[in-house]
Amino acid sequence: MTVTEATAAASVVQAKGLGLTFRTNDGPVQALTDVNLTIGKGEFVSFIGPSGCGKTTFLRVIADLEKPTEGTISVNGLSPEQAREKRAYGYVFQAAALFPWRTIAKNIALPLEIMGVPDTERKGRIERVMELVNLTGFENKYPWQLSGGMQQRASIARALAFDADLLLMDEPFGALDEIVRDHLNKQLLELWARTNKTICFVTHSIPEAVYLSTRIVVMSPRPGRVTDVIESTLPRERPLDIRESPEFLAIAHRVRDGLHAGHSYED
C-alpha cells in the first residue's frame, strides 16, 4: 500500500471535486472550486492563502456550517451533517468567544451541559483539558481576568472537552502579538503530540504554517482551489529556533512560491 493509499484508507476528511457558490443579491459568488483533498488521521494540516480564498469556508464545510454546491466531502466516513450530530469535531474560532459572566470552567462546561454529560464526568473532562492547555488553577477566573493568549487556550480547552478526534482551528492566534503567538504555537505542537488529534488549521502566516504542520495546503484567490500541497520534512519535535534552519526556510520558500503562483494563475 502506498503512502497516499494508506492516508485515504485512514482518512478523517476527504473532499472530491468540492465546490461552493453563494447566492447573493448581487449574483452568485464562487467561493470554492474543484477542491480535492484527503486528510489522514493524526495529521496537522494548515491552510494558507490570501484573504477571501475560501480557507475558512472549507473549514465551515467540514463542520457542516456551510453546504457545498458541487462534489462530495466526508468526515470520518460520514457526511458533515452526520459528523456534526455525532460531535465528531471541536471548533476553535478566531476570537475566543467566551461568555464573560461564566468562569473559565463553566465556559468549558457549557457544551458538555448541552450534551447532557453527567456532573462527575463533566468535572473530570474539564480538569483534564485545563491541564492539557496549562490552565490548571484558573478554573474560577472570568475571561476578563485572563490575557488574550490564556483566553484562546480556554477556547481550545472547550473544543477539546468533546474528546473528538478532529480539531478545526480558524486562525486562532491571528490577533495575538508575536511573542504570545510563538508561545502558543509551541504549546499547540505539544498538545498535538500528547493527544494525536487530527488538526485542520487556517492561517495567514507562512512561518506559523511551516512550524506547525505535517502538510501545508496552499490555496489560490477566489474561487479557492488547492494550488499546492507541501509535505513537511521537519521532525515532529520542533524547537522555535528550527525556524532559522535551512530546511525550514526551504519549505517556507516553496509556500511563498505557491502563493505567488496562485496569484499568477488568476492574472
Structural write-up:
The structure is a single chain. By secondary structure, the chain is α/β, with parallel strands linked by helices. It folds into two domains: 2-88 and 166-261, Rossmann fold; 96-163, no CATH class. The chain has helices spanning 3-9, 55-62, 80-85, 104-115, 119-132, 148-160, 178-195, 206-212, 246-266; strands at residues 11-24, 27-40, 44-48, 70-75, 89-92, 166-170, 198-203, 215-219, 226-231. The strands form two sheets. Strands 5-6-7-3-8-9 form a six-stranded mixed sheet, sandwiched between helices. The longest helix has 21 residues, at 246-266.
Structural Rg: 19 Å
CATH topology of the largest domain: Rossmann fold
Shape: globular
Helix content: 25-40%
CATH class of the largest domain: Alpha Beta
CATH 4th-level superfamily of the largest domain: P-loop containing nucleotide triphosphate hydrolases
Number of strands: 9
Average pLDDT number:
90
How are the strands ordered across the major sheet? Answer: 5-6-7-3-8-9
Encode the helix/strand succession as letters: HEEEHEHEHHHEHEHEEH
Strand content: 15-25%
